[in-house]
Specification:
This protein is an alpha/beta fold and 257 residues long. It has seven helices and seven strands, in the order E-H-E-H-E-H-E-H-E-H-E-H-H-E.
């Protein structure tokens, strides 16, 4: 393998769901590693500021596009515009997600369930639907989806969230099998508890409806968002050239416990 297999300098990245938390940490890490990038999220004004800030700090090209991942036409247009801006697409990360409300299954509304799946699952599906053809056409690409340790275990009182992450894992593995021969690698990370708004919202909601304590972390702390970036950059790089269909836990030992 010529050169540094860990390098992504000059690679073209689309990161959907970059406004905060893990997505924002990964956006900064991609740019710091020398990738040129389009980031996408829900707030164009905030996003323009973030893109300018990341570009100034890193020296990389960074643009922002507004997208609602529930809407197929918007996702299709975002991928097409990102390819136009970047001149192609080497790496994509589908990171958009919400925790949804906390409730037992009988108390969970169908409307909340549908919205949760529209963002967490449909969003990842639509991202891959429009990202894969560009990568397949050039004979190479890496897609990283956002799963969760809830994709591997259960999580009481946020069951639909856990189900949505199981679905993301299933889509990831299935797409990896479909496109492995074309050298389009598709993997997911499965974070444990990470210090983000999503985690704190989920824990607060669960505390209101249940006395079940948060999951025990063997490392006895929650992670910071930038602790997710090492695995993401590795999956994006040629250093992971024989890795596809993997769901990689980054969880302080939660799944092992």
């Amino acid at each position: 393998m010529a050169g540094d297999p860990f390098s992504i300098k000059g690679r073209r990245v689309l990161l959907i769901g970059a406004d905060s938390g893990i997505g924002l940490a990964c956006a900064r890490a991609f740019a710091d590693a020398g990738a040129n990038m389009v980031i996408a999220g829900l707030d164009q004004t905030k996003g323009n500021t973030l893109a300018a800030e990341i570009a100034a700090a890193s020296g990389s090209q960074v643009s922002y596009l507004q997208v609602d991942v529930r809407e197929e036409d918007q996702v299709a247009a975002t991928v097409a515009e990102a390819v136009k801006i970047l001149g192609g697409l080497d790496i994509a990360m589908n990171n958009a997600g919400i925790p949804g409300p906390a409730a037992s299954i009988p108390d969970y509304s169908a409307e909340a369930f549908d919205n949760l799946f529209a963002i967490n699952v449909r969003g990842a599906f639509l991202g891959m639907k429009y990202q894969i053809p560009h990568m397949a056409a050039q004979g190479k690409g890496s897609i990283i989806n956002l799963a969760s340790t809830a994709a591997i275990t259960g999580l009481p009182f946020v069951g639909p969230y856990a189900a949505s992450k199981h679905a993301v894992a299933g889509l990831t593995r299935s797409a990896a099998l479909e496109w492995g021969a074309q050298n389009v690698r598709i993997n997911a990370i499965a974070p444990g508890p990470v210090d983000t708004g999503l985690l704190h919202s989920m824990r607060a909601g669960r505390a209101e409806v249940s006395s079940i304590p948060p999951v025990k972390v063997p490392m006895e702390r929650i992670a910071q968002p930038d602790e997710m970036t090492g695995a993401v950059l590795w999956l994006a790089s040629d250093a992971s050239s024989y890795v596809t269909g993997a769901i990689i836990s980054i969880d302080g030992g939660v799944v092992a416990a």
